[in-house]
Specification:
The complex is a heterodimer of chains A (452) and B (293). With 452 residues, chain A is α/β, with parallel strands linked by helices. Chain A has helices spanning 2-26, 32-44, 61-74, 91-100, 112-117, 126-135, 140-144, 166-173, 185-197, 209-216, 219-222, 228-239, 249-263, 276-284, 298-301, 347-362, 364-373, 390-400, 417-429, 435-447; strands spanning 49-55, 78-83, 107-111, 152-154, 158-165, 201-204, 288-294, 311-314, 330-333, 336-340, 404-406. In chain A, strands 5, 6, 7, 8, 9 and 11 form a 6-stranded mixed sheet that branches. In chain A, strands 2-1-3-10-4 form a 5-stranded mixed sheet, sandwiched between helices. The termini of chain A are far apart. The two termini of chain B are 46 Å apart. The chains are: A alpha/beta (452), B mainly alpha (293). Chain A: This is ABC transporter substrate-binding protein.
Chain lengths: 452, 293
Amino acid sequence: MKLRKYASFVICLALVMGVLAGCSKSNSPNNSAKEGEGEAQTQQASKDVKLTFFNTSAEVNTVFEELFKKYNELHPNVTIELIPTPIGGAQLEKFQSLLASGNPATIVNLDAGTILQYKDDFLDLEPEKAQYEELANPGAIEGALLDGQFLGIPWTAQGYGLLYNKRTVEEAIGGTFDPASVKTRDDLEALFKKIEAAGKAPVMVHGADWSMGAHYLGLTYSLQSQNVDDNRKFVEELKNGKVNLTENPQFTGLMDTFDLLKEYNARKSDPLVADYNRDSADFAKGNTAFYFMGDWSWAVIGTLEDRDDEFGIIPLPISNNPADFGNAQVAYSEPKLFAIDDSKSTPEQQEAAKAFIEWMVTSEEGQNAIISEMGLSMPYKDLKAQSTNIISNAVSKYIEEGNIINIGVINYLPQDYWAKTGASMQKYLVGKIDRQGLAQEVQDYWKTYAGK
Amino acid sequence: MNKKLSLKNVGTFLVFGGPSIFAFAAVVIIPFIVGLYLTFTNWDVRTGDSSLIGFSNYLEVFQDKVFLSQLWFTLKYVFFTVVIANVFAFFIALALTRGGKGEQWLRTGFFTPNLVGGIVLGYLWQTLFSQVLPYLGNKYGWEMFQTSWLTDTGTAFWALIIATAWQLVGYLMIIYIAGFTGVPNDVLEAASIDGANRSSVIRKIILPLTVPAIVICIFISLSRSFLTYDINLALTKGGPFNSTELATYHIVQKAFLSNQYGIGQAEAVVLFAVVAIIALTQSYLLKKLEVES
């Protein structure tokens, strides 16, 4: 009996210690010891450079790691370590805590808006600008400027709208589907009715706050005008409380369409589950005809087994007038930029980082990884890899025709806008608030940023 | 002579206590003081600007209705988690100290969830609540499981409690078992000779004699559930629409997403005060119930 008593105490203690040890291990992804080590190394042999890479494109973490390995084989003096983040998880929180604790990553792959907010911490790439203007598509570098400064190198282009599964749509309408035939909201509703009659779910609305707040509601700010500066002014007016959203045609148009999507939503019975893999799979396998999402979902869809082969994209109609801005355009942006830290990194690290980024966007290995393996499209000329991403190829057609909504205004929005307004959109999605309530909550959110 | 002795004492103390004092200062005391200082500034990591602004962060905290309602939400959450986890742990421990077969295995089994990290555990329960249970619910027509528990404000609250309690129970159970084995056999024997039945043995003998274990368990479960962050992040991410944001989650969001470090830190200090007051009061009150056998 006594032995057992002691034994249980010892086991208990050992387990507690185990738990504590486990905690402490997982809490130090990139601590100061490592940075000191890196500095010491550069002093010892001026050639060896250690870089860290902070990645917010979490779905392609492994592809980046492969690239780092390849680059290390070509340039044995440069080692690059990935600092991963979870998909849709606390990415910004992690970036900020690294920065606040004085251990920023050498290279970051961040949303343009985040780079703008921390612009003093990043290296001005003005000397490299002319070179990249040569390499990139016309206008691509211009579009990546933040307040006129070249701080981040664009490497991916993304578009979003209503994706469609060609087979499902065509089976429902009994003929070939012409994406240009959907010009207005009524056209879309008629199509949804046919699909529902054919026994399929018409549309998938992914109920996550980022999809609702940034991609859907975010269109309100981008649709005001084709000019990003005008859109910025609109946001300023929102902050000053001068905008009544319920009287704004773009907002009401968007929300009327949202009501339609809500009614025909495949996840109608439980709209907030928001399982990205499951939603994408249901669309890819043809259980749902449309999906409000972007070409990035190819990272999931492309690798699925027994999925359909043909997909496309149509603009999200926001009114019944085909000529209105937005009804023929898909949203487009260069969402992620590579930027180089200028707060703690040494000049050697910065030079190595520049060389590595250039290698990533120009070499065959880099382009192959980004285009074929990540399934993203690159805003660069003379690409050495062929894209297998059917959805981004569909987006490219709109880009070539100039039918795009430039959503650059989101780069200038505060970092928490998607989480806060996304929560309001979720309330609207489940009917917890009505449109008046939604407009009120969104306006109230913006007012807290008055004068900031 | 006396001076020499006390000097020697100080030296001995530093040899043994120094390292741990250093570690404690480096990771607890100094960060705490710096944190307190931060609450009086408007520090922003983007600009590096930090000027003293007095108590205005605290004023904002007490005007922030969202934070106050989340603090209240956290109190409710903590109350139910503590009660449920302790009641279950107490009775499981009781059942597993009767000397039945396979007891050791069962103890290990109940303890295992505690070894699973909060994030993993959160994702595990997320799959259960949003996929497995709705699947079964739809198959067998159980209405309460037909939609995910995580998408409704009411059920998401309970989902959070169930997941946390599930993790805590094993840990508390071990402490209760240790407490029960400390109950002297002669007292129990005397009781059974006097003809006491099982329930009065529990109420009149085991319960009073295990008060120290209960105090520890309630203290641990209180502080751990007040500081829950990982399960909250992995299971509900504060959703649906921020209705299940615990105070810690709100603080992290405030500081690291909305960039209001000073206010976030001030909220953390308020939370610290609340936890300290409640935990100390409960252990003071319960300690009075302790008896000697």
